[in-house]
Amino acid sequence: QEPEEKKIALELLETEQAYVNRLHLLDQIFYTELMREAKNGKTVPEEVVKMIFSNISSIYQFHAHFFLPELQKRMEDWSCNPRIGDVIQKLAPFLKMYGEYVKNFDKAVELITVWSEKSPPFQDLIADIQKRKVCANLTLQHHMLEPVQRIPRYELLLKDYVRKLPLESPDREDAEKALEMIFMVAKHSNAAIAEMERLQNLWAVYQRLGLEGDIVDPSNELIKEGPIQKISIRTNSTSEKYLFLFNNMLLYCVPKVIQVGAEFQVHLRIDVEGMKVRELKDTQFPHTFLVSGKQRTLELQARSEEEMNTWIK
């Protein structure tokens, strides 16, 4: 009966072997063949192929020529040296390479779709490779997802390994440190994805606003957006407006009737610095609040008390 921790270490080795095969397929078959055809000018521009595969070659080289051989050597010597923690510690810093691959993943999948429609020879070549036995009836996109899922897999296996280690195991200290390092890398990779999503969402908002030059700033953060009624004291009536609240400014906008390009026109920008907000007890217009800033003061009406409170907050 093998000890539990050895079973997990063997599972790590087996999954690593399968993973290296998958990386070989991505780098040495898909990437190499698509690149060769691109160089012949038959399918798509070379740049597109490079953008699809990002830094997969570095990831493949690292796992095939460094991590897998180290792991194999370690498992062969298990009887006299039962430990993998130190090997994983060597691996962890290199996993930061995945940040680039993971960040690029959505764009890569989109490029495959777009160019498959634009270039039938490109689509045919991918289909041809996918028919081969080595692809196991799975698509290129499916294989490309594997590196994205690999770091969480290391984390799970290592957590399990540490849990099953006997307290007095010579590998305990190294394994715990390795787990902490893997955890930090996973966080780094997730942070890269979150930052990418934030920038994409921000860019989408800027496009809806017609890309007003001085508004476009990558460090801005959108806090809340939504429709609002503007109260006119002069005519005692309300009109539909739209607000975008960022960490540093409030944009008071008018929805465009003819939506070509931008969805909104920015009528007013109020800096958050020095802005005051308070509820107004108005019997004629319920759920109203006052926003006063350096630039101007606005009387606004929300659709409900709850909505008014979230805006004020």
TrEMBL record:
Residue stretches making up the PH domain: 221-313
GO biological process: cytoskeleton organization; filopodium assembly
Keywords: Cytoplasm, Cytoskeleton, Metal-binding, Phosphoprotein, Repeat, Zinc, Zinc-finger
Domain of life of the native organism: Eukaryota
Protein known as: FGD2 protein
Matches recorded under SMART domains: PH, RhoGEF
Organism whose genome encodes this protein: Heliornis fulica
Gene Ontology CC entries for this record: cytoplasm; cytoskeleton
